[in-house]
């Protein structure tokens, strides 16, 4: 992670905003200049939220998300910090978006909702076999979009960050994969988008 030990929240947010192209506007037509105005009035949380919105669906550098994560931690915004660290992981390891349907509570091992903020690292059957011909699973962390949790039997769009990106190079949109927390199928996912790891400069 970048060395931000001597940077406070406004400095971190100002530094992050400089990494956003000036012509960029968020979905509500807020511009980078608007963010600077919020920073000038010490509206740090609003500026942080807007910077996260700016980055939605855009390719911004790893340093952008590292600075936002550090700012969110200093502001004690746990979910925001978790999201920014998650986006750092997406840049390093790639991300697969998928539509996931969990098995109902009576049909699978899980009887409680899965947390949405990237703490679960289930196993996934993505078509690999072991040298002996048995199913070989791969691990990927799971973030549920726009929902704090996903209950058994529920359906949501999820983001998967592979633990070992090289295992996932063959997956394609439209492919069906299965989620496992033990030997049984915990859920079925259909891949929507695949984004490979970004080339990040060596430190």
Automatic annotation (TrEMBL):
Source organism superkingdom: Bacteria
UniProt protein name: Uncharacterized protein
Originating species: Streptomyces leeuwenhoekii
Gene: sle_03790
